[in-house]
Amino acid sequence: MRLSRCSGTPNIGVYARASDGLAIVSAAADPAFVRDVEEALGVEAVLATVSGTFLTGPLAAINSSGAVVSGAIESAELEALRKRVPVTVISDRLNAAGNNIAANDRRALVNPALGRKAEKEIEDALGVEVVRASVAGYGTVGSVCAVTNKGCVCAASASDEDLRLLREVFGFDAKRVSVNHGSAQVGAGLVCNSRGALVGDDTTPIEMGKIEDGLALF
Q1: Strand pairing partners for 3?
Q2: According to the model, what pLDDT value does residue 28 have?
């Protein structure tokens, strides 16, 4: 596990999403952050923009089968990404894929407010079973959870019922955590896969230990 910062902020999950095979990283990321992603997660970083922004984390979800992106993505952005990974565009008013999807290579938890068409698009794109649910009162499950093929962490405000749900969906005992000295926005402060994790540099040693435990990084 490694501490990092991107564009002057510890909210590094806003600028990257990763699977076990690839990381989609903001085209505006400085070289030090790109190097941190590649070294900590053991993957190649693909620099990109989505929907004309550098906010690749909230707007893209990815696993080993493919990626799902915001419906507002521009054609040139989509073409560039498709050279590296199969990409599906969500056709839904809730199109911030990274915020609305928490997925690994087996299952995906999605915002229950997503339309059925989008649910099927996610299922086909990522090759997973899709479950609709909120966590810690948030439909934006990708902002309050992070899941890999080895573990799962979620916001410290998650209920016991939420933890039972996450275990049922992903098969892991999810760990309640915070990032960046108390933030509940786990997805905004963390970039992870089965090999490692990168956390915002305001994250405390105690928080790092809990994240490491939850993601089984040992």
Answers
A1: 199
A2: 96
